[in-house]
Write a structure and sequence with these properties.
Elements: H1 2-15, E1 32-33, E2 36-39, H2 55-71, E3 75-76, E4 83-93, E5 97-100, H3 110-122, E6 131-141, E7 147-156, H4 163-178, E8 183-184
Helix pairs in contact: 2-4
Length: about 180
């Protein structure tokens, strides 16, 4: 089982390597000048009763990102930060890939990223069943709206993880994504 998980994780990492270059999105390079950040504004319309409650996953993702950026001396504000953080959650298996894009924003090629992830993972030739999740984080200049950094990490999904396991895994993923981001005050 451990070998299957290792093979699946490796295969997914290889399959999704081109995720950040799947569109014509230009990513600026260099240090990110910021002391504050805010998340993409989510529309405040009520969620229908039949819709999946995603508030718990968003709270976990936002806490992991806030903690990671806080350690880099970039603090969360409600609105109007020096940078805006957007994130996209992609979940898939051999047959279906879907996304949670509530905090990714509009016109930001989310559908292209999901399509790319699905075609790479689904077309890999892996005959074994797998489930994987990918977190994509974009850091956007708060004034010019230029994309300053796009990073992602993919993991095989755990079966029935505890909240503590979920939080630990999510913190590891966010740290991996933001590891090479250079911040300047």
């Amino acid at each position: 089982m451990k070998m299957r998980t290792t093979i699946t994780s490796t295969l997914l990492a290889i399959c999704l390597l081109s995720l950040t270059s799947c569109s014509s999105t230009k990513v600026d390079s260099g240090p990110i000048h910021a002391q504050t950040f805010s998340f993409i504004d989510k529309p405040s319309k009520p969620v229908p009763s039949f819709a999946e409650d995603r508030s718990q996953i968003h709270a976990m993702v936002q806490k992991a990102i806030s903690d990671s950026l806080g350690r880099r001396m970039v603090n969360n504000v409600d609105r109007g930060g020096d940078i805006t953080v957007a994130y996209l959650i992609i979940v898939g298996n051999n047959a279906v890939t879907t996304s949670i894009n509530d905090y990714f924003g509009y016109g930001r090629d989310a559908a292209a990223l999901v399509d790319k992830a699905h075609s790479k993972a689904g077309g890999s030739g892996n005959p074994n069943y797998f489930e994987a999740g990918t977190l994509v984080i974009d850091i956007i200049d708060g004034k010019t709206f230029k994309l300053l950094k796009r990073g992602y990490a993919t993991r095989a999904l755990l079966n029935n993880p505890t909240p503590e396991q979920q939080a630990k895994r999510l913190n590891e993923v966010v740290e991996e994504i933001l590891a090479d981001a250079k911040f300047r005050q």
